[in-house]
Each structure stands twice: as C-alpha cells, then as structure tokens.
Amino acid sequence: MTLQERDKKHLWHPLTQHKLHPDMTAITRAKECILTDENGKEYIDGISSWYTTMYGHCHPAITKQVIEQIQSLNHVIFSGFTHEPAIRLSEALIDILPENQNKLFFSDNGSTAVEIGIKMAMQYHFNKDENRKVLIAFENGFHGDTFGAMSVSGLSVYNGPFSDYVLEVKRIPTPDGKNTTHILDLLRKINLEHDVAGFIYEPLVQGAAAMHMHDADGLNEILKFCKEFDVITVADEVMTGFGKTGKYFASDHLETKPDIMCLSKALTAGVMPMAITSCSQNIYDAFYSDEISKGLFHGHTYSANPIACTAALAGIELLTSKDIQANIQRIIARHRAFGERIVSHTKVTSVRQRGIIFALDLDVEMERYGNLRDKLFNFFMDNGVFLRPLGNTIYILAPYVISDVELDKIYRVIELALEIV
Ligand SMILES: Cc1ncc(COP(=O)(O)O)c(C=O)c1O
What we know:
Layout: H1 3-10, E1 27-31, E2 34-37, E3 42-45, H2 48-51, H3 60-70, H4 84-96, E4 101-107, H5 110-127, E5 134-138, H6 147-152, H7 156-159, E6 169-172, H8 180-193, E7 196-201, E8 205-206, E9 212-213, H9 216-228, E10 232-236, E11 260-263, E12 275-280, H10 281-285, H11 306-319, H12 322-342, E13 348-354, E14 357-362, H13 371-382, E15 385-386, E16 393-396, H14 404-417
Parallel strand pairs: 3-15, 5-6, 5-7, 7-10, 10-11
Antiparallel strand pairs: 1-2, 2-3, 4-12, 8-9, 11-12, 13-14, 14-16
Helix pairs in contact: 3-11, 4-11, 8-9, 12-14
Bound molecules: pyridoxal-5'-phosphate.
C-alpha cells in the first residue's frame, strides 16, 4: 500500500473536506525549496509550507544546532524553571523586535499566540479595575482557530458553526489610502458606544484574505487613535513576521509600534511548533503585583521547549545574515519585474507585492474551495510547483533561499496556468 492509501485509514487533515478531497500528497523528504513525494516527483515549495520554512527545508546550520540541543536538554517545565536556549532566544529576539517590545510569553502555535495577546489586552484593563470587553478587528482578518482567535477573525467560512459562542468584536475596514477619515469616524463611534479593550490586526498584509494588502499611513493613524484611548494594540505578525515584508517585522514599516505582538510560523524556521506573544513593559507592569490573581495564569505544557528555542535562535542567525538579507532583496526585485510583466495579461486584473509576498488576481470568478481553484492547484502540482490559490488569487511566498532558476519556473508555470482558466 502507498502512503497515500494508508493515510486514508486513520488521518483527518486540517481545512479538508475529505469526501471531496480524499487524496493527500505523501512527502517523504524535503531539501531547500524542493519537496519530494513518495513517487519521487519533486515540487518547488512556493508557499514555504504555510509561511514557515523561510530558510529552506532541512537547513544544515539549523539541523546541526537542533541535534546538539537534543543531546543535552529536550524539555523541561517552564513554570518555575528556565534554561539557556530560552534566555538566549529572548536576547536575540528582543534585539530585532520593534524597540518598545520587552517581554516574551511562550506558547505553541499562531492561534495560541493570538489567544494570549487577547487575554493580555483584556486583563490589562481588568487589572486596572476597568471593565473593557469589546475588541476591534479588521474585516476579513484571520487570526487562528481557537475561540478567541476565531472571534476576532472575520472569515465566516471557518467560523460559521461557532458564531454564537464568540467574544464581542466590532469590525472596521482595512485602510486603502482613501478611507482613513471614514475609519477614524467609525473608531470614534465604536469607542464612544463601547468599552473597547483592544484592537487586533494583521499589519499590512492579511494572509488568509488572499494576501490583501493595506495602506501603512492609514494603519498608523488607526494605531495612533488606539494609543490615545488606551485601546491595546495587538499586531498579529504570525504570517508577516521574520523578514517577509522586506523588514524584520511588518510593524517596522509603521511609526506607531504595537503594545503586543503575536509570532509563530517562521519563528522556528519550520522545524518545531512554537509561538511567542511579546509585549511592552507597560503591559507587563499591569500584571506585576503583590496579588497572585493579577498574574497571567495561562500556560502550555511545551512552553519554551528548548529544541524549538534552539531552532528559533538558528533561524534568527540566518535572518540577520548578509546572505539572507541579500536574497530577500533579490526576490523582491525579481517579483517586481514579474509583476510588471504579468499585469498586462488579459486574465490578470491586478498584482500586488509587499516584500517577498507577491499576489495576482485573476479575472475569473472562483470559489475559495471550488472546482476551478482545484483545477489550478492540480495544474501547478502536475508541473512541479506547489502553490495554493486563495479564491481567484495566486500568490508566491517562497523560501528566502529560492534560486533564480526556481523562481523562473514558478513564474513560467503561473503564466501557463493563465491559459487554462
Ligand atoms: C495571521 C495569522 N494569525 C494566526 C494564524 C494561526 O496560526 P496557527 O495555524 O499556527 O494556529 C495564522 C495561520 O495561518 C495566520 O496567518
């Protein structure tokens, strides 16, 4: 029996309607940007396995450090205990985070990082005896699949069955360069009518909303408004973090820094699951008290796992290296040139880019999980490129180590795909 056949017996995959999509591609190994399946077929990983493996699969420098760590300390409880990998990671991460970030709280994945961000924002006010319960979020945002994260997410395709059991959230449109006054009016109204605890946002690029990109100046105005009214700002950088927007973090493009940041995915270079919610000293101070109940009583068993911390440290070493920074600039320039070429294609309505995140919209009606989307996906896979169209948007978010030859192949296959839609 093939792995694909054996998979069907017991496994239930994420975001999958198994009746419609019974066959999983069984990957047996991966190196740099290439995934190899059980039949030996190779695919360029054009989306870095959900935005994680930004330095390529099985990077030797990361592997070496992880192996060394595995031999000395695998895991230890992080409540009442600490260890060097977490301490070294905290020092390295604080060095590259926006200057106001000063404390790190560990968890396991993007959703838990968001959950903790929300709890920090709400309890910040609670600890100050203020009853603030309402959150503000962008329309069509995506922040994860746990209940708090679902509440602030706007994509109903994921949330439908649970919509009666979520936190109270008011939504605002993303800034497009023309609607800032309208958004600020809306914010003033929401803030007058409700006790607002926090504002959570994917800065500059909304990943699951098909790489929807928004205006930095407008977002900056929103953040300034929030600061004025002590509405805690929570930047969900789970997707945008660690170099993808051309700077270490999307928040680096903005003058007003968030109070809280949610990090995961590329944090550990796709080697281990881990997440961090970072915050400013001001947030931390609201929990620092003689009263035990004012602490943040949230904890995950694998918090700050030493192997994951080591992978993250090795990832940060690569991110800050001259080679990776040069690669990021190379990819940005290559995408720009491709965008200038493809935008005039009759099937393309628009292209957009922020750093190494590139997206184009097709002039075709396409359901998010519909047949045409599947046809496109299968065409890419048949041609050795793993891309995951989101509705009628095709996007590229490839590892920083992708070669020009591999990029050319992705561009060529996309151009061929335009002929079949
Ligand atoms: C912006 C953002 N936040 C949170 C999440 C949830 O992360 P996870 O899937 O690790 O729970 C995602 C996942 O894609 C994301 O893109």
